[in-house]
Amino acid sequence: MPRTRDIMTRDLITVSPETEIAHAAKLLLEKGINGLPVVDEEKLVGIICQSDLIAQQKMIPIPSIFTILDSFIPLSSTKRFEKAVQKIAATTVADVMTPDPVTVRSDTGIEDLSSLMVDRNFHTLPVVDDGELVGIVGKADILRTLIPTPEAG
After folding, report:
1. Within 10 Å of residue 141's Cβ, how many Cβ atoms?
2. pLDDT tens per residue, range 11-52
3. Where are the domains of the chain?
4. Is residue 134 helix, strand or coil?
5. Looking at domain 4-144, which CATH architecture does it have?
6. Is the dihedral of CA 34, 136, 21, 55 positive or negative?
7. Residues 6 or more apart in contact with residue 102 via CB below 8 angstroms
8. What confidence tens digit (pLDDT) does each residue in 70-124 have?
9. 39: nearest Cα among 144, 150, 136, 145
10. Which helix (H) or strand (E) holds 115?
């Protein structure tokens, strides 16, 4: 059974936390990829995906409040509101990336990789061996394993 190392992309396109949002979006579109590892001094610090950038286009969820005896009672989380505002107003990758992303190892089996992606709704996962970013794998990479190769055909 194939392992992650057999299907991952080794020629990595990465961005830094200081990269502007527009540049990250351009890379995602031009390269036809869903996610970019975010590295700081060669260390993986996050991942930015298309969905992170799309979240910027959402309306701000205004928290509802009501008053009882002159006290304000919030009906939604202030922390969630602040995070939404931060994402919408983001100008750099650091503002919208997912920090400390879930990673897989290059020896992870395809079944485990597939289960993780489906169960946790991940589209792209960084591949890290011994603390070093060695690749990236996406759902499209797994799909390619379903297509017979000419030599197998």
Report:
1. 20
2. 999 999 999 999 999 999 999 999 999 999 889 999 999 988
3. 4-144
4. strand
5. Roll (3.10)
6. positive
7. 116, 120, 122, 125
8. 555 555 555 665 555 555 556 899 988 999 999 999 999 999 999 999 999 999 9
9. 136
10. helix 110-120
